[in-house]
Amino acid sequence: QSVLTQPPSASGTPGQRVTISCSGSSSNIGSNTVNWYQQFPGTAPRLLIYTNNQRPSGVPDRFSGSKSGTSASLAISGLQSDDEADYYCAAWDDTLNVFMFGGGTKLTVL
Amino acid sequence: QVQLVQSGAEVKKPGASVKVSCKAAGYTFTSYYMHWVRQAPGQGLEWMGTINPSGGSTSYSQNFQGRVTMTRDTSTNTVYMDLSRLRFDDTAVYYCARDQGDYIGDYWGQGTLVTVSS
Questions:
Q1: Alpha-carbon dihedral B7, B98, B63, A9, rounded to 10 degrees
Q2: Closest Cα partner for B31 from B83, B101, B108?
Q3: Cα B35 to the center of its chain, rounded Å
Q4: Rounded CA gap, B48 and B82, in Å?
Q5: Tens of pLDDT along B17-74?
Q6: Which among A37, A108, A105 is positioned nearest to A79, based on CA atoms?
Q7: Residue B27 contacts A where some CB pair is shorter than 8 Å
Q8: What chain A residue is nearest to B96 in terms of C-alpha separation?
């Protein structure tokens, strides 16, 4: 069981806005920055959001991240069918001294 | 362009060791830490540890302490992850991922499947 808690699944219809939450604690999200990764089946993860809300070049601005206290969120607006993937939040944990990943959220586009 | 190319799939017996390589290209190898992350079939991502290619210092997850060793070869721009005393539940895809300094994983290797089977 991960220290960072994500819903196991999320869904939306094309064009909709969906949000994926990531809940942590003072030793991880509360004191460190949050990254988000996107992963398609059989492929390596891809960095989607870094330092809470920054997008690497090439990531559409439909993807946005936010953080408040010990929680973070990934929002995807204008949902598209090829957004269907697994999404992971991650942050360093100062107590466990590890880089923690959330359990992952499988996004389905209906 | 930045590339991380990993070694091929491995099949090992329980109790054996496996060494996975990750060859870096397209940037100054010693300027960026490298991390190892694994993913068991149908499961999430698990951080294993990191190595500083410059001096070779390492930091490992407690989950792998005593079983994992990360090394590097600056002459070939390659980092290695050695996992010993393999168990069935070590069956996973193992990834290397570059550390940008402020965040992990701006570039990833393609993954190496390690299967532990008797």
A1: -100
A2: B101
A3: 6
A4: 11
A5: 999 999 999 999 999 999 999 999 999 999 999 999 999 999 999 999 899 999 999 9
A6: A108
A7: no
A8: A44
